[in-house]
Design brief:
Largest sheet: none
Number of domains: 1
Helix content: 25-40%
Radius of gyration: 12 Å
Number of helices: 3
Shape: globular
Structural class: mainly alpha
Strand content: under 5%
Distance between the termini: 20 Å
């Protein structure tokens, strides 16, 4: 039985690398950030479906995974 790692809002839920989320940086540091890169990109439904249930709406997919459509 696999145990799901807790969702870390700083890590991509697909590759577990830094997702560079400006919104999360602002929440954790209190320092105003420019709009996050992800506000201007499209995430395909197939890619979003690859995000583990426990991490949905808790951690952003990184730019690398979005560009390669990698689960």
């Amino acid at each position: 039985m696999q145990v799901a790692l807790p969702a870390d809002p700083n890590l991509c839920p697909l590759c577990r690398q830094s997702n560079q989320c400006a919104g999360e940086v602002e929440r954790t540091t209190g320092v105003k950030q420019p709009p996050c890169w992800c506000n201007d990109v499209k995430f395909e439904a197939e890619l979003l479906a690859c995000v583990p249930e426990h991490a949905r709406r808790k951690a952003c997919i990184c730019a690398a995974c979005n560009q390669t459509d990698a689960p």
